[in-house]
Amino acid sequence: MSYAISLAEERKEGRREGREEGKKEGQREERLAILRRLVFMSGMPTDEALSMIGVPADEWAQYRQKLEEIR
């Protein structure tokens, strides 16, 4: 494989990884927005809201921390 092809493949892989990370970041932001509305506007307990919107249990601490930063 030539050097130019190798660089092109690396760039393509970098774009793919960037898109995936962007998609994950967008999902985190959307979850946080929904969570904020449920907890602050409706008064729903945080754990109940996290469970309701399908946040994996191993990520709950991150979202709790972000909610505390918002308050």
Structure, described:
- This protein has 71 residues and is mostly helical.
- It has one domain (3-70).
- 80% of the residues lie in helices and 0% in strands.
- The chain has three helices and no strands.
- The protein has helices at 3-41, 46-52, 60-70.
- The radius of gyration is 18 Å and the shape is elongated.
- The N and C termini lie far apart (54 Å).
- The mean pLDDT is 88.
**Could you tell me the strand content as a percent range?**
under 5%
Tell me the helix content: over 70%
Number of strands: 0
| End-to-end separation | 54 Å
Structural class: mainly alpha
Number of H/I helices: 3
Average pLDDT: 88
Low-confidence stretches: none
Largest beta-sheet characterization: none
Cα-atom Rg, whole angstroms? Answer: 18 Å
Secondary-structure element order, as H and E? HHH
Shape: elongated
Count of spatially separate domains? 1
Topology:
Layout lengths: L2 H39 L4 H7 L7 H11 L1
In short:
With 71 residues, the chain is mainly alpha-helical.
What tags apply to this protein structure?
3 helices, single chain, 80% helix, 71 residues
